[in-house]
Amino acid sequence: MDDHKLTAETVRDIAAVSADDWDRLAGSANPFVSHAFLAALESGGAIGGDSGWDPYHIIVRDSSGRLAAAMPLYVKHHSYGEYVFDHSWANAFERAGGRYYPKLLSAIPFTPVTGPRLLAQDDSVTLKHALADAVQALVQQYQLSSAHINFVSSSDTQLLQQQGWLVRQGLQFHWHNANYADFDAFLASLSSRKRKNIRKERASVIASGVTMRQLTGDAISPVHIDAFYRFYLSTIDRKWGGAYLTLPVFQQLRKTMRDKMLLVVAEYDGRIIGGALNFIGEDTLYGRNWGADIDIPFLHFEVCYYQAIDYAIRHGLARVEAGAQGFHKVQRGYLPETTWSLHHIADDGFRAAVVRFLDAESRGISDEKNQIAMTTPFRSR
Q1: What is the pLDDT of residue 243?
Q2: CA atoms of 348 and 199, how far apart (whole Å)
Q3: What is the pTM of this model?
């Protein structure tokens, strides 16, 4: 492909890009990079305004004007809602007299899920390089401190590492489906103590009088969304966090993506008292948010982890990604997986300091992953 015939531009609203064109590049495997998901964040007010996330998406067109590549991109005025924590970088750079914010970030806002960020026709390396070059050009044009691409696929990580982007590792916990016939077959793969513990936890939820329902598609009603948003806010309140997502975001997602949503609801005494929202990819179930009105022992584990595993087994999905952090997931069958992010640092001195930081951090993460792997809940084979 002749890169001299490519033209890159930025758009401040994803609605300015045709959904069909965007999704043609994004594919259908990962729901979060879809036009519908990103548009819901913008139209629902989670992005833009005074959120600290300003849309600045890059699109690349070929000589005929056809959309050939795209990248979700934001100008960030803080580092919240990213799940790749660079607050220490910001503090160090600003103590040295620099200005860290605003910065550029390619990511799915508030969504720590690995997936495509360099959306290129035919997975073209030339087009991916054009996207990365456009990001670096924006950093130079606006004299920004840095650009970051979070939760990148391993192949794109290698591609941009060769262009000089710095690589950072992270850890998440994913459950993998070993072609289990049912949930009991999964339990049979665990050590006796872990198997008994999970059965005890699930039995405790049943004994408390709670029943579970798995809702998808048209079965998810506006009433369910209103209830879930209440649960979402209750979790935010307990964690002293900020409610990044708005009710209109969830309402819009129900309208446009309900066939990609799995809402697990917990019912008690005739009313919904808790729930977890998941999104369904081609081979993966992605756990996102959860909450409950009543504090019931082990309800969190049942709603978020065991119901997700049960759904994945029954629908032949390869894995469950249950979000960021959470060592407690290991004892429930979720094992550590490496995640990747990429970083372009404009200042040479600051870049050198970040390189030293990443080198030390990567050794620590590798050691942590090895130690966690030794605590596997699965029976030795």
Answers
A1: 84
A2: 55
A3: 0.95
